[in-house]
Amino acid sequence: MASPNKAAEPTTNTADGGDPHLKRHVGVVGLLFASVGSIIGSGWLFGALNASQEAGPAAVISWGLGGVMILLIGLCYAELGTMFPLSGGVVRFPHIGFGSFASYMTGWITWVACMAVAPIEVEGALTYATKYAAFTEKHTVDGAVVHTLTGLGLGVAVIAMAVFVVINYFGVRWFARVNNVLVWWKLGIITLVIVAFLVTKFTPHNFTSHGFRPEGWHGVFTAISTSGIVFSFLGFRQGIELAGETDNPKRNVPVAVIGSVLLTTVIYVLLQVAFVGSLSPSDLAHGWAKVSFTDDFGPLAAIASVLGLGWLATLLYIDAVVSPADTGLIYTTVTSRISFAMARNRNAPQALAKTTSNGVPLISMVLAFVVGLILFLPFPSWQQLVGFITSATVLSFGSGPLVLLAFRKQLPDHPRSFRLPGAHVLAFLAFWSANLIVYWTGWKTNEKLFMAVLLGVVLLGVMYAVNAVRGQQPEWDWVSGLWYVPWLGGLALMSYLGNYDGGRSVIKFGSAFIITFIFSAAIMALAYATRLSRVSVDRYIADSQREAQIEEETLAG
């Protein structure tokens, strides 16, 4: 059994004379750019318009608050990532602190969230491409304007999803080598848009002509969850997921996690300011909730065309393919790795752990492809899928603050090159933020999310029964992960009773903050009280190291 201190060493020892530095080749810039590259996908292409429709000019506050809330969560993972620089840390940390049941639930929710990213990136690209063919058509759904896939769009979406799988099967390593170039492209395009909009036309009157907060604070908070704001930050996880592959995790992980969120927060706020100032008064004739203009399926490119910046519009239409493709390819890899790791931990069918001779988890990849296609049916537009991904991903991150506090008690002397100051306060604020984001998403979307969670519970029951018949039942650690039940159940109930998108309006706007505050404190206290013993933690540290090592060796081909 490896000691806790040994687990934190910046090199990974392979079995029987293997290279002790296997896969430790990602530097600080590479890790930072992996996070930035995942953050900047399709979200920024639509977020400014969607946020304006929800919150008006106050969307700049929504972007700032969204960045702060995600940063609080990211700070927790920055400490965890340097304690245990393991690939797939978002799933492995709960396994170490709370056992296999918590690991399964986190893994299932994380897999659902990641699996949905490739479809939304395809939808984003096809929405912009509607300028050239009828890939989407405009509809009004529950009072909101959305651009849903047509038959042609759905057919092309299937092909695009298949291309993601093929590239990952044959050429993902080549793709990884050019990712830094793609990130520079993304940053360059966003910077060009901000500067060009501000210089060409900026109308300060737009910030007050129809009210700065036309929908009040309710609209400001709704925009954080449903317009693509939080979604636009979620790629920071790559700094955690790739912690086991960086050459200096103690330095690189905090830089990647914190740096990527801070950098993109500044960029997104400036983009929102530029967007609001660039609109014509006629675009706002019916108020911010109904702001629209010609070719609003590609809002930023449409504005660039109106401003006479045809060259910028062309670049944006190109970027509408490049940025989503980059992010979609990254998440196709991540999704297959999650199901692979869950199978290795005996939390999923063992077939998902099978790889080809080239080290590709083909069955895991094909499963993600098929389920991704199914998601096009209930979520045929970018706007409809973004809330689902936001809730699911934030829910998967929600366990991080709880693990952090558990580790402070279980492993008080474990080396922490980045030690979060005021951990108890900041961890609570991070957990509360995660719960608020899920709550603000609204029942109409969360209903589908919690149905997916229930499906995961059913699959767990089936897998448990099959393992029992085979006599291969792993240790499930039910008690230490029991807090998951009231946490998810309570969130579902609050969402159902809330006053956001389909809720019953029993819980009002102001009281929701108090209720979620008390709820978050109660769940955190329950998790802290039921954490694993030090003996079990030490055993799972050794297990996680071993499984991470096997995963990297296997997937390395």
Give the SSE layout.
Elements: H1 4-7, H2 28-39, H3 43-55, H4 59-83, H5 89-98, H6 100-115, H7 117-128, E1 136-141, E2 144-149, H8 151-170, H9 172-177, H10 179-200, H11 216-226, H12 238-241, H13 249-278, H14 299-306, H15 310-344, H16 362-375, H17 382-397, H18 399-410, H19 423-441, H20 443-470, H21 484-497, H22 509-529, H23 534-555
Antiparallel strand pairs: 1-2
Helix pairs in contact: 2-10, 2-13, 3-11, 3-13, 4-11, 4-13, 4-18, 4-19, 5-6, 5-18, 5-23, 6-15, 6-17, 6-20, 7-8, 7-15, 7-17, 8-15, 8-16, 10-13, 10-15, 11-19, 14-15, 15-16, 17-19, 17-20, 18-19, 19-21, 19-22, 20-21, 21-22
What does it look like?
The protein is mostly helical and 557 residues long. Helices cover 67% and strands 2% of the residues. It contains 23 helices and two strands. It has helices at residues 4-7, 28-39, 43-55, 59-83, 89-98, 100-115, 117-128, 151-170, 172-177, 179-200, 216-226, 238-241, 249-278, 299-306, 310-344, 362-375, 382-397, 399-410, 423-441, 443-470, 484-497, 509-529, 534-555, and strands at 136-141, 144-149. Strands 1-2 form a two-stranded antiparallel sheet. Strand 1 and strand 2 (144-149) form a beta hairpin. Helix 4 crosses helix 19, helix 6 (100-115) runs antiparallel to helix 15 (310-344) and helix 8 (151-170) packs antiparallel against helix 16. The model is unreliable at 1-23 (pLDDT under 50).
